[in-house]
Structures are given as structure tokens and as C-alpha cells.
Fold this protein.
Amino acid sequence: MANHNFAPETQMMGYGYKPALSEGSVKCPIFQTSTFAFKTAEEGKAFFEMAYGKPGHEGEEMGLIYSRINNPDMEILEERLKLWDSGEAAAAFSSGMSAISTTMMGFLKPGDVLLFSNPIYGGTHKFIHFVLHNWGVIAIGFNAGDCKEDIIKRIEDNNAGDKLRMIYAETPANPTNDLIDIEMCSQIASAYSTADKKVLVAIDNTYMGPLWQHPLKHGADIVLYAATKYIGGHSDLIAGAAVGSKEIIKTIKKHRTVFGTMIDPHTSWLLMRSLETLKIRMEAAATNAEKVANYLIHHPKVEKVYYLGFTPKNNPKQLPVLVRQFLSNGAMLSFDLIGGEKEAFVFLNNLKHIKLAVSLGGTESLAEHPFTMTHADVPTDEKNRLGLTDKMVRLSVGIENWYDIVYDIEQALNEV
Ligand SMILES: *Cc1c(COP(=O)(O)O)cnc(C)c1O
């Protein structure tokens, strides 16, 4: 009993917070302050020396200075976030994009090669192709579904082996639910790492939340989240996170401090509240998604359903990755209607309960048209190659009564 390890869902209620430091308040207050008073000038000097990594303070704990550097809500949130992925440390951000961009800027320099998976989140795609491109970072894409040999050939054909610095992947891919093998990414990274250059593997794990896929366990170095999605879970905030080793997160936080991409105290507090129900929310959504997927697969107006639970049928080659890497079939699915944009729009315009909106991972179900909305910017030939058609609808299944969700889908399909 002495060595009992509490599960993350238990730790979410109080981990990292000491009531005695806040008048006995059971819940962590919102420390809505920009700056913190030092007890003495000597203390202020010591905190700054620690903040800037000066020697002589080994083993000492740094105090609070200024909310761009540290704040109790941000720090306690980070302590809790790291638990789900068994990471040594976490960093919280003002958005998923600030987590992704700060991490990339933190490790990539001009001349470096970034290998990334396609399809990728639109904001990340723009960051890689507009911002990093202007800073001289060379981006090379690979497709979800490519095997190790294909990817290595691509690196070799581009003569990019010595310059490779980061492999960045989103798995499952949005909106096709194709899987990428994280262990394979990690093997490729090892093959191109040298004594003075470790190739890092970064995984955007937003689609699976912190519950259903744990990239660090499969050899990834950094896990990234749009906390806006499952972690926040109520479609009422924008936030992001990075999880990894102490050393990796230290580098990321150094950049966060100078970019000013940290999370604010109020949003940190909202996320702590969200984390208490993360597990039951995500499990309820996954249970509903399974019912919705099984309904859609038998509907005569539906041509194909992209759902992790249908991987054996859709992508039999990816089955070993599904079994090894995923703890659930998740709650994100897409489907092709028979027809095209016209049929997809009739369906979307006739939904009564499900909102027509982008984003995902909230308590409410959302539907959107990837071809003209989230993936509008992807060139048409690339969409064709990825199987992203204009007859596709993406659903983020929420935690409503499942029968109401199916009812709504059915009555909208009747109008098609
Ligand atoms: C939403 C999303 C992001 C960006 O997150 P923001 O909080 O909107 O900046 C990044 N990656 C994925 C997979 C997302 O779904």
C-alpha cells in the first residue's frame, strides 16, 4: 500500500495544489495577477538568477516572478497535464498553434529539415509553409500510410539525412483517420541521429486527447495538444500544451517566455476544472461514436465510414498499429455520402441538434465539410491523393444521449 500510485483521473482533483498556501481553499483559486511581490531584494535576485539558469541554485525551487514566466494556475495545470502521458514535465500555452509554433521554433534553425505527415492541421500547414519556410527551414512531407522504406527513400532522394532535425506527425490523420506508426517514426529518427544531433519526434495528439494514445511510450520525444479540444472539452476556450522530458520542456519554456505564448491564469483554471471530467467525457463520447459509426455503416446513402473501429476493413495493413498504439477507437469519424458537395451540404443544412461548426472534442456534437472548410486550403490534387473528397462530412461526436444524435443524423439523411 505504501507504493500506491493514484490514477490520473484521481489526481486531477488536487495534484500539485496545497490548500494551506491559499487559506485552506479546497480548490485552487485563480491567481489573476501579472506580477508577484518578493519578500526581500535578495529573494528577487535569487529568483531571477534561477529564471536565467545561473549556477549556484541547484536543488532550490524557483519562486513566482511574473505571469509570463510563471503563475500558480499555469504551474499546477502543467503538473496535472503531464500525468496522463507519463511525461516528466509539461508546458501550457495560449493555443494549440502557440504550442506547435513555439516548439518548432525552439528546436529548428535555418537549414534544418522538418519531415511532416500529410494531411496535417491547416494552421500547422500554414506555419510550416509560410513562417518556417521564410526562416530557411526545409519541410518535406510524407503521407499517412507510407511505409518506413517510402519515407527513408524520400529523405534520401532529397539528400536530407544530415539536416533532418524533427519528424512531426498527426495520428490518426484528420479527417481520414489513417494511422501513423509512432515507433516507425522513432526508428527513422534514431537512424538519422548523431552524437551531436538528436532527431526529435513530435506528435500532435489532439485527436486522441491524453487518454487514448500515449506517444511518449512509443518513442516520441514531444506530445502536443490543442487543449481547446478534448482537454478543454466544452468548446469555451482556446489553449495548448506540450509534454515531454524535463530537458525538452525546459527548452520549450525558455522560448515560450520570450515569445509570450503562455496560457493565462483564468484559462488555466478552466482547464483544471475540465481535467476533472476528462476521462468520463471522453469515454462517453467514444461510446456514442461507436453507435453512430455502426448506424452510418448500414445506411444506404452512406458510401464509406472513416472510423478507427473500421480499420480492419478500411486499412487492414494498419491493424497492427491500431492494436499497439490506440486504447480506443475515439470519437472522431468521417463519412462519404453517395454524391458530392451538394448532398453533403443538404445533410449539414438539415441537422437540427448537431451544430455546423469546425473544432472538435467538446461535449456537444459538431459536423463540418472538410473539403470546403477545415481543408479548404489543401491543393485539390493533394486532397485527391489523400482520399479527401467533397462528399465527406466530419463528425465530432459529443456526450449527448446517443439516440438523439442518431435521430438527428437520420432525419438529415432523409432530406438528402
Ligand atoms: C485545433 C487543432 C490545432 C490548433 O489548436 P488551436 O487551439 O486552435 O490553436 C492543432 N492541431 C489539431 C489537430 C487541431 O485539431
About this structure: The pocket of pyridoxal-5'-phosphate is lined by residues 95-97, 121, 123, 170, 174, 204, 206-207, 226, 228-229, 238, 240 (CB under 6 Å). The chain has a mean pLDDT of 96. The domain at 278-413 is CATH 3.90.1150.10 (Aspartate Aminotransferase, domain 1).
